[in-house]
Structure formats: C-alpha cells, structure tokens
Design a protein that fits this description.
3% helix, mainly beta, Methanol Dehydrogenase, Chain A, 39% strand, 4-stranded antiparallel beta sheet
C-alpha cells in the first residue's frame, strides 16, 4: 500500500508556490508543465473583438508574461535605447505601472541575426512578494510589486560570460525559498579571445530575498562544442515524494537535490557519437512518473522513467521532433509540437501511442510552446496566428490573426483571460 501511495504522489505534478493555480507565475505555468487552472477562456477573438486591453511594448522578444495577483510582469528589450527593461502592468486595465532598466543589450550576433534570441528572451518569475527578471547579459534583478528594487547583480561578472551561440534563453525557477538558474554553456567563447581557464557549466541556487548565491554547483558534461549549450528552464519533479530539480542539456539529463544542488542521477542516451552541434533548446517535461525529453536536429522524443537499477527508456518516437518547443502535459496526455513541420501530436504518456494530431493554421513556423487550461490548448506561430484546440482530438475550436510578427512568446492563460505577447504589444483577451 505504501508503494502504491508513493507511486501516485510521484505521478502528480508539483505545484510551484510562486502563485495561485489560476495565476501564471512563470514561463510554464503554476505546475511547470504548460497547463494551468484558468477558466472561462475564449475560443475565438480578433485584434479588436474580445480584446479587453492592449498595451504597447518597447521591443520584440520571446519572453512570456508572468501573471500574479493584480500584476502582469514582462521583460523586454527597448529597441530604441537597447536597454533591457523590467515592466509591470495593471492586470485589470493594462496600464503600465512601472518600468526599470536592468541592463544593456550589448551583444550582436553575426550568424543568422534574425534567428537568434535577443538578451530579453528569459521569462520573469513572480510570487506575491517579488518579481525576478533575468537577461542574457547575466543581469538578474528583483522588484517588489510596486517596483521598488530589492536587489540586483550580474551573474556573468560573478561566474563568467554567457557564451551561448544563439543567445541565453533559460528562465529561472522559483521554488521553496530558492531561485534556480542554470548556466549550461560552452567552455570557450564563440567570439573574441580564448579564456585561460575554461568555463564551467553551472546550476546556481540563489536566495530570492537577497540575490546572494546559496550554492554554486558545477555540472560536468562530456558534450563537445555547441552541444554544451542549453537554453531550457529547470524542472521540478518528485520521485517517491522526494522533490528534484531536473536539468536538460550538455548531452545529458540530470536530477539534483533542491537544497544542495548535488547531482542525484544522470541519463545520457541521445548523442553517443558526441555530435558537436546538438544544442538543446526545449526544457524537459515531468509528468506521470516520466521525464519527456525532446532532442534536437530531428532526433527522437524520449520518455524516460526511473527503475530499481537506474533509468530506462519507456518509449521513444521520431514521429514528431520539436527543435524548439517544450512539450505540454494536459489531461493525461503529452502534446509535442514540431515547430518547423507545424505538426502537433498528442501521445499516451505511458505507452507513446499516438492519440491525435493536427496541423495548426498559419504559414510560419512555431517557436512558442503550447499551453493549456479550461479544456483548451493554445498555440501561436511566428506570424501571430493563434489557435485554440480541443485536447481530446485536437480539432480546431477557433483562430485569431494577431499579426505583429515575430511572435515567439507562449500564450499565458490566467484567471479568465489570455495574455498574449506579440512583437510590440501585450494583449489581454477574454470577457470583461
């Protein structure tokens, strides 16, 4: 009986304490799996009909809004000044309440500049006491809900430069009085002079009240070159009632003690040849006692589960291979969006059996990850075509042409509204 109870507990998603379930306190929502508890959400709208309010933003970036209590927090690049800014909006009216400069966008990318992240790609995380903003410059800052600065620092100055080829994009995780920030990176810069001492990949545990490091855990890897880079967010899961912090990247999946950062286990199974370009963009997904891993470059999606002797692969598929989008868990299914092929598939989480699939409307690729609430799945492609899908068979319930590309932020369902970030506008959609 005890083992049965623990198995049930392990399958349940851990609710992040950063906000109520009907809020959206971080990039992947209150449970960390892309799903929330919002209700009364719309199935269709347009740029005018069904929009409660719209607020201008100073620049385009991929960060998703955090919605907690009466505030909407957004990180952004100011295109005019190149400043990296933290913003807060009134949740009821869309009025900008405050704007704080946290850093400067100093890096320019010579390789495919239209495809890379800018330095404001990390989504903020918030609770009722603070909102924390991280930028690809290494700037990390916290503010209270009224905009008063609580603390600020630069992680790159303290722990070495963020040298990610496509621009750092990991969002922090706030859990149980600790802020978790991964820096999974190549050991030498892509540009400029080589460093005498190679860079370590790290998991930082930071006190959210003071901004000071609690733990600096070095995370070793056997990956080569760009495959050391990872852009995903830490994931919280349970194993027999024990919480773990999970990191994906550097050719491996690792679980860590939440209090010490100590590595508890490691799975390394998708790049045995050590191909040097297999960087990881999506985060892992924890659900149903499994971890779902989307590998890059048209590699498989793996469902990995613990066993008495280690870790085993429960199933894998190449039917759909998302290079960018993080999978969604909702109503006992895992949904995987292949952004380049524009194909969304729902799988049985335990067997990998395909249950449903759809090609959402729109011509452009998907870079935003799907989200869900209120019996609906939401996704939006780069040209701003938003789709609302039924989770049972992925039939299309409604669409909206939001425009204002590029659109790379996930749709955030909170309360009775959807918070949608296009390139230069933040929309609140739903009933008055």
């Amino acid at each position: 009986m005890r083992r049965s109870v623990l198995a049930i507990l392990a399958a349940l998603p851990l609710a992040a304490p950063a906000g109520a379930a009907e809020d959206w306190p971080n990039w992947r929502g209150p449970h960390g799996n892309g799903a929330g508890e919002a209700s009364g959400l719309p199935e269709s709208w347009s740029r005018t009909a069904g929009v409660r309010w719209s607020a201008p933003l100073p620049g385009a970036c991929a960060s998703t809004p955090a919605v907690v209590r009466d505030r909407v927090y957004v990180s952004s690049l100011d295109d005019a000044t190149r400043e990296l800014v933290a913003l807060a909006f009134d949740r009821a009216t869309g009025r900008e309440l405050w704007r704080k400069v946290v850093g400067m966008n100093t890096r320019t990318w010579k390789l495919n500049p239209g495809l890379v992240n800018n330095m404001a790609s990390c989504s903020p995380v918030a609770d009722g006491e603070r909102a924390v903003f991280l930028f690809g410059s290494g700037d990390l800052a916290a503010f209270d809900p009224d905009g008063a600065p609580l603390w600020a620092r630069n992680l790159a100055k303290d722990h070495g430069p963020f040298v990610h080829l496509w621009g750092y994009g990991a969002s922090p995780l706030l859990h149980d009085g600790r802020l978790y920030v991964p820096i999974l990176r190549r050991d030498q810069p892509y540009e400029g002079r080589r460093l005498e001492k190679p860079l370590d990949s790290l998991l930082l545990l930071i006190d959210p009240k003071t901004g000071k490091d609690l733990v600096r855990h070095v995370r070793p890897t056997n990956a080569k070159d760009e495959a050391k880079d990872a852009y995903g967010t830490p994931v919280l899961r349970t194993d027999g009632g024990r919480p773990e912090i999970v990191l994906l990247g550097g050719d491996c999946l690792t679980g860590h003690d939440p209090a010490t950062g100590t590595e508890l286990w490691r799975w390394d199974g998708w790049n045995p040849a050590r191909i040097g370009i297999w960087r990881i963009i999506p985060s892992a997904l924890a659900a149903e006692g499994h971890l779902y891993v989307a590998t890059p470059k048209k590699g498989p999606v793996f469902a990995v589960r613990p066993s008495g002797t280690g870790w085993t692969v429960a199933w894998q598929t190449k039917e759909v291979t998302p290079d960018v989008c993080t999978p969604l868990y909702y109503r006992n299914r895992v949904y995987v969006l292949d952004g380049d092929r524009k194909l969304l598939i729902g799988f049985d989480p335990k067997t990998g059996e395909t249950k449903c699939s759809v090609t959402p409307p729109g011509k452009e690729a998907f870079r935003a990850s799907p989200t869900a609430a209120d019996g609906k799945i939401f996704c939006m492609n780069e040209d701003g075509t938003a789709s609302v899908l039924a989770p049972d068979d992925l039939r299309i319930l409604g669409t909206a042409e939001m425009g204002d590309r590029p659109c790379r932020a996930s749709i955030a369902p909170a309360g009775r509204h959807l918070y949608i970030r296009t390139a230069k506008t933040l929309h609140c959609v739903g009933a008055p």
